[in-house]
Design a protein that fits this description.
Layout: E1 23-29, H1 53-60, E2 65-71, E3 74-86, E4 90-94, E5 105-106, H2 114-130, E6 137-141, H3 150-154, E7 158-167, H4 172-177, H5 181-193, E8 195-199, H6 202-215, H7 224-236, E9 240-246, E10 252-260, E11 264-272, H8 278-294, E12 298-300, H9 306-314, E13 319-329, H10 331-347
Length: about 350
């Protein structure tokens, strides 16, 4: 959930499908009235931070659902989603707030040769997709461990690719050398006037975030309560961090939020004062990269959005990596969105 680069850093069930190779598809998991009824991480394949049951619970107020496939009583595949009601009574299956990637999460214990595992992966994904409830619009951005989208395309989805930049953990000296000269220079200048500290109260960050939006005449399109809850829970669990940069007078100039799993630390959110320079945020990103590397984690810039954004993020080094996205949209949904955009345009 990043603000734009010029300022600052979102049922009836289908029938059972036929089990194959000992795998048992199941209907999408209904909502649990008690959070304790949700299965724990130890019983589920968790591909990323965003597949964690606690993250999904917090991001949706406990309303998320998921399709699952079992083998020998164990969950070997799951596909979480959130049901959203759109304009014109259209139903959409989407990813929750601040959940930047999702898609199928499969066990890593599939037996057999590379070809056999690949075929099983497509089969499991196909079974998960077949369980999704009817919807006018479905959209997922798949996590980086998703090698292809064959099962989605076979089910009538369109697919495409977006990119992110990943920085592998290296010694600090190596990380510094791989950056562009311009990036190093703005960080050096920022270090002369700014102090970096870690804060634990999401409201401290979110108040600053909204003030910066207001100064630029922009509106916050995200649910502040849910974002605050996610940040607080991640920090409480020791998998989230809020870094802020203040000037000599103690005035906030920039802030970022990152969160991580056992593989990657994700750059999820940032904001900076209109009066600050670009170096304020670059300084915070540099601190976050160092902390990720010290923990043996890859730092994920969490998406490249346009040439200006790419130039900024690529300055830190790293490797451009693809992320697949998939979507399936009915004609009625497209018509409803067209009508809605016309009404919004007239109102403005």
């Amino acid at each position: 959930m990043r603000q734009n680069s010029s300022s600052t850093k979102q049922a009836r069930f289908s029938p059972f499908v036929t089990p194959r190779d000992g795998m048992t598809p199941t209907r999408p998991v209904p909502l649990a009235t008690d959070a304790a009824a949700r299965p724990t991480r130890g019983t589920l394949p968790v591909a990323t931070l965003f597949h964690e049951p606690w993250w999904l619970e917090t991001a949706t107020d406990g309303t998320y659902q998921e399709a699952r496939v079992y083998a020998d009583g164990a969950v070997i595949g799951r596909l979480p989603y959130m049901i959203s009601k759109k304009f014109g009574r259209q139903t959409a299956l989407v990813m929750p707030t601040m959940t930047h990637v999702l898609g199928p999460s499969l066990t890593t214990d599939l037996a057999g040769s590379r070809l056999t595992r690949s075929l099983k992966t497509v089969s499991i994904c196909g079974d998960l997709i077949a369980q999704l409830p009817p919807a006018s619009h479905i959209w997922f951005e798949c996590h980086g461990q998703t090698p292809e989208t064959v099962a989605f395309e076979s089910a009538g989805f369109s697919s495409g690719v977006r990119f992110t930049i990943e920085i592998s953990p290296e010694p600090v000296e190596a990380l510094w050398r791989q950056m562009r000269d311009k990036t190093r220079n703005v960080i050096r200048r920022a270090q002369e006037t700014l102090t970096v500290e870690e804060v634990v109260d999401p409201n401290h960050f979110l108040n600053f975030y909204e003030i910066n939006l207001q100064k630029r005449g922009l509106r916050n399109n995200y649910d502040r309560r849910l974002c605050g809850n996610l940040m607080a829970e991640a920090i409480r669990r020791g998998v989230g961090r809020l870094l802020v940069a203040t000037d000599a007078s103690g005035v906030l100039q920039s802030g970022i939020f990152t969160a991580w799993d056992g593989r990657s630390e994700y750059y999820l959110m940032s904001t900076r004062s209109p009066e600050s320079g670009n170096g304020a945020t670059s300084l915070l990103i540099w601190h976050a990269i160092q902390r990720a590397a010290s923990a043996g984690l890859t730092f994920d810039m969490d998406g490249v959005h346009g040439k200006k954004n790419f130039t900024l993020l690529a300055g830190f080094g790293g490797v451009l990596k693809p992320r697949y996205f998939v979507s399936r949209t009915s004609a009625m949904f497209q018509v409803a969105q067209y009508i809605k955009s016309g009404l919004v345009g007239r109102a403005s």
